[in-house]
């Protein structure tokens, strides 16, 4: 069993030292359920990618901009369902977040087809 506070500290320390400014640590791996602590240095961007059938992001420290069909900024303490559309994530500050994913759902593909989604990313603040 992983201590979340230890994982947060380790992740941001590792990201700050890493050449690419990021670090991820898988905390829970139980069948299709995954929970990963991800740390990004300010300005680091995770390139556009697909989401698994279900995913949420909880910002523990800092803030991120998620760009996909819509652009939203998520700040410390925010938890939101992630879009089922391709999206990218950029750290606006040194940031740590908990990514929870379900990697398979019976009867669903691991990546959605364009135009299908079951939830929308929580709108916190729009960019001007």
Largest sheet: 5 strands, antiparallel
Radius of gyration: 14 Å
Task: Please provide the count of β strands.
Answer: 9
One letter per element, helices H and strands E, the order comes to: HEEEEEEEEE
**Cross-sheet strand order for the largest sheet:** 1-2-9-4-7
What do you see in this structure?
This protein has one helix and nine strands. The C terminus is likely disordered. The radius of gyration is 14 Å and the shape is globular. The strands form two sheets. Strands 1-2-9-4-7 form a five-stranded antiparallel beta sheet. The chain has 128 residues and is mainly beta.
Give a summary of the structure in a few sentences.
With 128 residues, the protein is mainly beta. 11% of the residues lie in helices and 44% in strands. The longest helix has 14 residues, at 4-17.
What order do the helices and strands come in, and which of them pair?
Elements: H1 4-17, E1 22-30, E2 33-40, E3 45-49, E4 54-61, E5 63-67, E6 71-75, E7 79-81, E8 87-91, E9 95-102
Antiparallel strand pairs: 1-2, 2-9, 3-8, 4-7, 4-9, 5-6, 5-8
């Amino acid at each position: 069993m992983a201590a979340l506070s230890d994982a947060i500290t380790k992740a941001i320390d590792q990201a700050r030292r890493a050449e690419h400014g990021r670090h991820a640590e898988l905390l829970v791996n139980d069948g299709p359920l995954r929970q990963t602590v991800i740390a990004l240095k300010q300005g680091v961007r995770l390139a556009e990618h697909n989401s698994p059938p279900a995913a949420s992001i909880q910002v523990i420290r800092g803030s991120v901009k998620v760009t996909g069909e819509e652009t939203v900024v998520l700040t410390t303490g925010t938890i939101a369902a992630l879009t089922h559309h391709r999206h990218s994530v950029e750290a606006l500050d040194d940031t740590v977040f908990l990514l929870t994913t379900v990697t398979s759902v019976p009867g669903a593909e691991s990546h959605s087809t364009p135009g299908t989604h079951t939830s929308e990313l929580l709108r916190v603040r729009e960019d001007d």
